[in-house]
């Protein structure tokens, strides 16, 4: 389960790439392809297994001048969705 | 994305069938029983196919066969795919995947490897494969993990192994895979030839369905289980390939381009070759790829059915095999006038789940 102090990373075998037809970011994995929206892309691009969920939310909040707490909930929700799809893993 | 030309018909995934040769003889194999005549594509031809695939939108390359490891140039094809930004997945029996080969593939950029197993129990597995390969597969799975390549496991299910579903799932979990595909046999190629021996009983199917649901829960978060239902026992057809010529393309060993891996079984259809045409032309313009696109080709009951945007009329190969007409509604559908073909067949299966392996083993080209 994800928590603010967990450190998300792409799951093994998952790769992020730009779709050369649409120019949009996609996640590629053994069984398929997931198109990422702009928000999800901003989040996933920071999932390096080092930054915590809280730190990612903080960085994005500063960048987009948004409320950090509200954004943290969105970040967690997005990552939880990706975790259920086995595209993101969490290190404590 | 609908305002772009061909956008609703964009190939996302290429299945590269590098050879029909295989060290295994699985009776459920969906490869053609009559191998097409012609020489296998050369390395340079495959590299061009991969580049052209990337140019027309493909993001995903699966290397399959037969057994793709029988091609000594496999790593160079993986490297070509990675160099063109494609995700690379090896679909293998595992036979021939030693440390040297796995390292070579990893260095070429292989993203993931799917190893097939026939059962959890070695004697049963080797009996199904028609070759003593189970032990080699265990070793291959270990090597894949050791090399840091993402491992997925595939087990094709049928009357001889469906009753061991729970044991098979535990076996896969012990291999350390995060992804297990459990695919009830689909009857094409050798599988169609052997369907009387492979089709499970209704009771087996019902028990397995419950077990699959329970085990999915049990392994949630640890191992993703993807369970492909046996479509003869369904009421509605599968959305085969997400629609003909819509998302997927297959190139077979001799360079014919197919909307699905088993399409060459459809009598009377001709598929264009990468040796004669650009892949883009085949995808966009060829008669074969346009034959079952959209809904104009559909007969009733599909034409007026709201489901046709969901299941696309089912599987063209299955329609051809069971009715002789590739444009018929998939007979799996209970609304099909040909459903009787499936019900009559299932009536011959009865309730006896004993499996005598009297099937015809898959043969290799030229044997």
Structure description:
The complex is a heterodimer of chains A (92) and B (367). Chain A is an alpha+beta fold. Chain A has a single domain, classed as Coenzyme PQQ synthesis protein D (PqqD) (Arc Repressor Mutant, subunit A, Orthogonal Bundle). Chain A has three helices and five strands; from the N terminus they run ββββαααβ. In chain A, helix 2 packs across helix 3 (68-84). The longest helix of chain A is centred in the last third of the chain and has 17 residues, at 68-84. The model of chain A has no long low-confidence stretch (mean pLDDT 91). Chain B is of the alpha/beta class. Chain B contains 14 helices and nine strands. In chain B, strand 5, helix 6 (165-175) and strand 6 (179-184) form a beta-alpha-beta unit. Chain B starts with 12 loop residues before the first strand and ends in an 18-residue tail after the last helix. Residues 1-6 of chain B have low confidence and may be disordered. Chain A binds chain B through residues 11-15, 17-22, 26, 28-33, 86, and chain B through 1, 10, 12-13, 54, 57, 59-60, 85, 87, 89, 111-112, 114, 148-150, 152, 178-179, 181, 224, 226.
Mean pLDDT of chain A: 91
User: What is the CATH-assigned architecture of chain A?
Assistant: Orthogonal Bundle
Task: State the low-pLDDT regions of chain B, or none.
Answer: 1-6
Cα distance, first to last residue of chain A?
10 Å
Quickly give the structural class of chain B. Answer: alpha/beta
What is the C-alpha radius of gyration of chain B, as a whole number of Å? Answer: 20 Å
Strand arrangement, largest sheet of chain B?
A: 7-6-5-4-3-2-1-8-9
How much helix, percentage-wise, in residues of chain A? 25-40%
Query: Strand portion of chain B, in percent?
Result: 5-15%
CATH topology of chain A: Arc Repressor Mutant, subunit A
The gyration radius over C-alpha positions of chain A equals 13 Å
H/E order of the elements of chain B? EHEHEHEHHEHEHHHEEEHHHHH
For the sheet with most strands of chain B, the description reads: 9 strands, mixed
- CATH level 4 superfamily of chain A: Coenzyme PQQ synthesis protein D (PqqD)
